[in-house]
Amino acid sequence: MTALARPTNGRMIGGVCAALARRFGISTTTMRVIFVLSCLLPGPQFVLYIALWILMPSEKYRDKASTAW
């Protein structure tokens, strides 16, 4: 498993689905389909997506932070 960070390439909106797909080793298309299907169910899917978008670091900032030490 890789570190959880939003990729700079291959993202559609915020990169959350791409980051989760990379983390769990599945294709980004599969993760996006799972997210869209989960939106048909009741629950806070959009709120969770926005929260992950805000809280999850981007790859470009994560790499700079790890090399700073």
Structure overview:
The two termini are 23 Å apart. Helix 1 crosses helix 2. The longest helix has 11 residues, at 28-38. This protein has helices at residues 16-24, 28-38, 45-55, 59-67. With 69 residues, the protein is mostly helical. The protein has four helices and no strands.
- Give Rg in angstroms: 13 Å
Beta-strand residue percentage: under 5%
Specify the overall morphology.
globular
Distance between the termini: 23 Å
Q: How do the SSEs run, as a string of H and E?
A: HHHH
Secondary structure tally: strands: 0
The level of helicity is: 55-70%
Give the topology:
Blueprint lengths: L15 H9 L3 H11 L6 H11 L3 H9 L2
Helix pairs in contact: 1-2
